[in-house]
Design goal:
Elements: H1 2-67, H2 71-93, H3 98-107, H4 113-173
Helix pairs in contact: 2-4
């Protein structure tokens, strides 16, 4: 039995040593994993930074190319902006129902430049018609008044002429 106790103690000592070795191995493995995770995280962060720098460079190049538009292109953009403002004002001031105005505004992004220009011309013509409607009526009244005055004067002159003609006829018969 004493020998069995010795063997048991020896086995227990070996197990204890093995447990210590296993614990050391686990600690070392955890450190390596943590170190590897940290290195991997650093690697991923470096990659992200490089990608961001590349993206920033591309954006800067695009911004530079946008800012390098020609004078002709700038003039076109200015004209387009002016026409867009004019179109909005004409739509706003038109006497069409609000739902129709909203429908036109919704269609604008889908329209070609030619279609927008045609719409602009139509709205402008309608706006001018509306604005000058009263003026047209006023001029019609003036023209009628002038024509009436002319007709009355013509009648007076015709009567005078006929009287003069009768007088002339009487003088010829003398």
């Amino acid at each position: 039995m004493a020998e069995n106790n010795k063997k048991t103690r020896k086995i227990l000592a070996n197990i204890k040593t093995s447990n210590i070795n296993i614990e050391k191995f686990l600690e070392e493995t955890n450190r390596k994993i943590a170190k590897t995770d940290l290195e991997r995280a650093k690697f991923l962060i470096r990659n992200d930074i490089e990608n961001l720098k590349a993206t920033k460079k591309i954006i800067q190049e695009e911004n530079n190319s946008v800012s390098e538009i020609s004078a002709e292109e700038k003039e076109i953009l200015v004209n387009l902006e002016a026409q867009a403002k004019k179109l909005v004002v004409l739509l706003h001031n038109s006497n069409m129902p609000e739902d129709v105005k909203e429908a036109w505004l919704a269609l604008l992004p889908k329209m070609s430049l030619e279609q927008m220009e045609r719409l602009l011309n139509i709205l402008e013509a309608k706006y001018l018609d509306e604005q000058t409607k009263d003026i047209d009526e006023e001029y019609k009244k003036r023209v009628k008044k002038i024509a009436k005055g002319f007709q009355e004067e013509k009648k007076v002159l015709e009567k005078k002429f006929l009287k003069s003609l009768d007088k002339f006829k009487k003088n010829l018969k003398i």
